[in-house]
Amino acid sequence: MADEKSPTSPPAKDGVEEMTEVPAVPPVTISSAVPYTEEEKNLLLEHLRGVSHHQERSEKEEGVDGSWREGTLPLLCSMVEKVLSLAAERCNVCTDAGGTEGGETKAKEGDQSSQGTPVRDVTINMDLFKEESDYILEQLRLQPWPFFTLPRLYEILADPFKYNCHESELRGEKLQSAIRRCVLVSCPLNSGSRSNSLP
Hints:
The chain is mainly alpha-helical and 199 residues long. The protein has helices at residues 38-48, 53-62, 66-96, 106-113, 118-141, 150-158, 172-184, and strands at 165-166, 169-170. Helix 5 (118-141) packs parallel to helix 7 (172-184).
């Protein structure tokens, strides 16, 4: 009597072992328009690929962690500062060209310029833009641990143009607003004190 054999998986065809198909992961790209250092690029790639998700969660559970305050946060602040500078440059170009970030037409801006007021308005707007950028950076430096909007912030930093363009032109105010939402929605409750920010 032949020995009974337990059921096994069907033999592989042509001697090739069958493997479970792994879903394709879209490639991670970082915009070359922002002058990131290699260390900053590596940090972005690491987080965008999901390598540090567990590490971030552990750091948050443990409270203020040295690797966050001394390693990740300074690099993150540097990247945000560079992207906000890019946004400011884009705002400057738009206003110098006679257009506005709010979508006003050049003709309307031209009519206003005959009264001599837009130059002052543009200066005030740029001052407010820079002041807002400084405030965003200040609040970011106060973050005691990785915050829940951090994944979205990494996406914006990797490609500032992806969701913040109109007719292939980067909209500086929209980009600043996107970063602002990511940072301020989870800023510490004690962020009112400006003396607590990192240098």
